[in-house]
Each structure stands twice: as C-alpha cells, then as structure tokens.
Amino acid sequence: MIIVRHIVSRSQTFLRGHNNQVSVLAVSPSGRYLASGQKTFMGFVADIIIWGFEERIQLHRLKMHKVLIQSLSFSCNETYLASLGGQDDKNMLIIWDVQTGKPSFGTPLNVNVANAVKFFNKTEDQLIAAHANGVQVLKIDRVNKKIHTIEVNFGNLKRNFTSIAIDASDSFAYCGTKTGDVLEILLERAIYKRVGPVKKLFSLGVNTLGLLPNGDIIVGAGDGELAKLNIQNMMIKATSTVLGAVTSITFTSDFTHFFCGTGQSNIYWVDADKLVPELRNTCHYERINDVAFPHNFSDVFATCSINDIRVWNAKNRQELLRIQVPNLECHCVSFMNDGKSILSGWNDGKIRSFLPQSGRLMYVINDAHYHGVTALATTSDCQRIVSGGHEGEVRIWKIGKQTQTMEYSLKEHRGRVWDVKIRKNNEQAVSCSSDGSCIVWDIKNFTRLLCFFESTLFKQVVYHPDESQVLTTGSDRKITYWATFDGEAIRMLDGSEEGEINALAITKEGEHFVSGGEDKIVKLWEYDQGVIKYQGVGHSGSITKIAIAPDQKTIISVGVDGSVFIWKMPEEIVAARADNEMPTMTKNRTELLAREQAAEQTQAQGQQTAGARPAKSVSNASQKGRKQL
Prior knowledge:
Helices cover 8% and strands 49% of the residues. By secondary structure, it is mostly beta strands.
C-alpha cells in the first residue's frame, strides 16, 4: 500500500494495488503520474503500477519483471517510464509507454547487480544506469527498436555504484559508491573526470544524491550523515546527522528545503543551506510485538518493538514518548489500570515499569522469567501482575509501593506463554501456550481450574465480556469458542485460508470481534453468527497484535512490517452500540405509564362533573405512580 499524506493538514489517502512490499517509488516531473514497483517471491511476476496522482486512481498495471523492481524513472516529457529489474530478472531494463502501458524497448544490462537507472533531464532518448561494477550510458534507437550501451571508462578505478544524479544541462552525472565517495562523469564522452570529497569517505557508503541549482551536491550516507559538497572543489561545506541510514532525498520546488527519509522510518525536514534537520514523522522500523490502550482512555496508545516502546497520540498520530533499552527486545506492553505506569516484558527476563509521561524507570523485577517475559496482565486494583514466560511458567507478582514480590509460580505449560487475560473479579486468569493448551487458573488459591487442549500453537486468548466463554486462535487457522464452565469447545470457525491467526480483540458488548494474522487482512466478525462483516487490507506483512479503543470507535493493528494502522470502526457497529446503551422500557414501566395516563384522564373528567375535590385525590395517585416509576 502507498500512503499519500498532505503536508499541512496531515490527512492521508491510501493507494491499494500491490500484494507485497513496495520496493520503489517514482514521481513524474510535473507530478501528474506516480509509479510504484514491488517485491515478490522467487519465480513470480513483480508488478509495476502507474497511478494518476490527482485522481488517485490506477491507470496501468505493468507485468514483465520477476521477483523485484529495483529502480524506476520517468522521462522529461513523461512519455516513457524506465524500469529496472533485479538480479533474478537478469537486470532487465524495459522502457514503457506511459499512455498505453505497453513496453516499447527492452534489454538485459548483462551485469551482475544493477542498482539504479535514470533518464536525462532534456532528452527522452538517453539514460544512465549504475551497477555493481560500473556505469552505463544508454541510447534508445527508435528506428531499430534497440537500446545501445556505452560503458563508462574509469581506468583502474573499481567501485560498486549505488546512486545517480544528473545536472540540469545533462553535461555531468554524479554517482555515489559503497566505498563512500562521489564520482563525476562527463556524459558526452562517457569518461570519468574526478572524485570527491577530498580526503573524506562517507561511512557505510553513499545511498542517495541530490543536486541544488547552484551545482552543489547533497549526499546521504549509510551511517546517517548528510553532507553538502561544493561543486567547484568537492569539499564539504556543511554536514549533519540523522537517525538511520539516509535512503531518499526530495527537494521542494524552490530548493530551499528537502525531505530526508531514513532506514529507521524517520522523515526529516532539512534546510538546504545549513543542513539543519527537523523530525517530521517517525514510526517503528522493525517488527511490532504488542499494542495496548490505557484503561478507559482512547486518546493515546502504546506499542513495543524490538528495541523500544513508543506512546502515540491516537488523534494526530504523533509520537509522544519513546522508551529505549539498548540491545534488548520488548515482547509485551501494558498499562496499569490507574494509568500511573507502563509495564513491559523483555527478552532478558525482566519486567520493567516506566512513568507514562517522562518514561523514567520506576522499578525492575529481575529474573522474572528465565528466557524472557512474553505476556503480561494486570488486576483492576493494580496490586498484582500475572506474567508468562518463554519457558512456559505463569507467575503472580504482588506490587507494593516499594517492593515487588512473587506470590506463586504455576508450572503447567511446556511451551512459550503467548497471552494472559484476567477476569474482572481478579480471582481467575487464563493463559494460552504454544504447547497446545489453554489453562484457567485460580490466582487467589494458585490452582488450575480448567484446561483446553487442541492440536495447535495457541497465539491469543480473550474473554467474552460476560466471561461465560473464551475465544482462542493459533497456528491451525481456527477461531474457537470455549465454555468457561466445563472447558468444552462450542464452535470452531475457519479464520483464514492462507496462514495462522496471531491476534484477537473483542468489543465491550461482545457482539463483534476482530482477528488478524499471516494473511495480512484485518477481519471484523459478528460474534453470534460467526461471519465476517468487514475486511481491512493494508498490511504488507503478518499482523501480530490488534487492539480496540475503549470508546470502540477505532481499531489499532500492528505487524512485522513495523506499521501501525488505525482503522475506523464501521458506522453500523458504532450506531448499534449506541442503541444498546440507550435505556430500554420494561413491561412494568409500560404498565405504570398506562395507569398514569388513565389517572390523568379520570382527573380531567372529574373536574368537569364533580368539582375540584376528586381531582385532588387523583393527582395524589398520579404522584405515587411517578415515584414508583
């Protein structure tokens, strides 16, 4: 999926068409067209889609490349689109007609690995391509329907080229390398001229290049360094550092600022003169393991990933807080019901509690589980925590003002505990494990009450709001209803056709629930009928967790692709919930109202026939009826 966001209003539009990860984007010089390429599996076709940017519609779907689209480039007059395939596609270069969506020219580059291709700025007949061992200047022969290749002569200089920038006059091209330098090429003769910067190499290579109107070069390096090179002497004029490897640079129309994207999912707004970066947007860049809302508060939510915990504003989608513990992975996150602390479980076996506003560490429970804490749940009185570990143990902790002590360790599971839920009375809890069992515990007397067995790796368990049933899901792609009274399976639904289901969440009324998993689809189910009412498509990787906001108006889904999706609950379900919250008229109340209306009619008749005295007694009767109502 491609997201188009307005810079000022921050409103978003979604372009759906790809069925796997989007690998490259290209915008035409006028901004009329947008082209996107994707990555797919070995032997499968990798699609290119040409979009009408203003209309936000799909114009053409181009199918010739396999496995990966490496690079895309529009010609200066937007007549052609050049696409470069990956190594499994024999580095095939194809020139497409933008109007018809049909290929016009094509040739394999006959190199080991091709990295980038770019049209010249003033002609549609010439391109330049960078590959692992050199640079090629390509000329299109329209008469013979061929593409002629000229290899640039670098002499004894050996480099792996990664990026290309061409000056406005099409005289020179600048190529970034994995060595960390920038080479200047004279395009007319296809020869190497000079190299820069002088006595300086950029760490982890040059990933992207941009040219300013005065000729200065903006360099984005693999170690997060931004630099501006003087075109006259190739010396560094300004430098700054951003978080993550620089992956893209896009200038504004007046070239005074540019947006900078990084490999750690950060977008910066940078001044082109002094290179002062300002963080504009950010997200997780690795797998997200959990998502949680505070108790009865829908304005913020927390997510945890491989190296940090982040708290987000649910309304404007801005990051409010980031908690980082270096070189550790956070498996689960939860809020205490009083909202005074954020609980988290980590792969070093510790439970850490943080303040929700400052992110300061409150306390640490050392050696909570031997091989990592994988599940957490808190009681409503904020006095106990139930945790699950990678080794299969379920432990109950007593939380005091100054101390945290273990009350009991329950050793029944033989595999990783994936999820734990606590009943409203704080006396029972249910845990699900990868050993194929779900166990209902008495956390007051520390005994096992019930056990559900199934041939699956259970991934998540949720209580129905009336706590008479339990929903489970796992690797068998089934969603199972269990009775909490005797532990019998009541119903089993086919939750997916492609892969296991990892996430479940249920509404407060229990009339609907949401599921997600390896099929990358968020599904909204009707609980009693067991049918899918709505589906949400957008994730490019497996969904790991789902949470419904306490106000029941939004759904949050997270996945292995590092994305956080905020879905709007369908109006039909929100309206049905509002109807359920309205007071209902019982039979007794209806009879009382009927009696009151009859008394008022008798009162009116009595005033006409017998004067005011009978009316007084009728009025008293009416008042008694109102008190009973």
